[in-house]
Amino acid sequence: MNFESHSMTLKIWDHSTMDHTLEAAIAHVSTKANAPRDRVRVTRSGPNVFTVSLPGDAAPGSLA
Predict the structure, then answer these.
(1) pTM (2 decimals)?
(2) Which superkingdom is the protein from (predicted)?
(3) CB count, 10 Å around CB of 9?
């Protein structure tokens, strides 16, 4: 798992936990960024690899 500013990358091996894991990641990014959950994006970037992020312009206080 990698953490960056308002984003995280996850490799999820167990597909039976995918929904729960992504929901938890969305909640984490949303809370850390102090932003609504509906602004958080999930992008599949490879087999079993997902990036959960908040676009730069959606972060409160962002200069973008």
Answers:
(1) 0.77
(2) Bacteria
(3) 17
